[in-house]
Amino acid sequence: MPLVVPGINSNMGDKSEWVNKLMGKKISDGGSDEVNFAKKDLPESHRVLKPGDMKTMDHNPDRLNVHVNEDGTVHDVTYG
């Protein structure tokens, strides 16, 4: 079985690319600008996780997890 390392041999790309695009922004249903990032521009396999959200524990190396603060600002980006 081949080793799958997100950002190296995953089709999702490098984590730092998403960190640069999302950190400090809010995920919105509208368009993207200096303070917002449009949800429609996220990869198909993604989930936005707020503090206290329940989540499945299945590991999907191609799923982008966008972690937001209480106010909706992105503070972390992971794969899994």
From TrEMBL:
Residues 48-80 are annotated as: Disordered. Residues 48-74 have a biased composition (Basic and acidic residues). This is Proteinase inhibitor I78. It comes from Penicillium argentinense. The lineage of its organism: Eukaryota, Fungi, Dikarya, Ascomycota, Pezizomycotina.
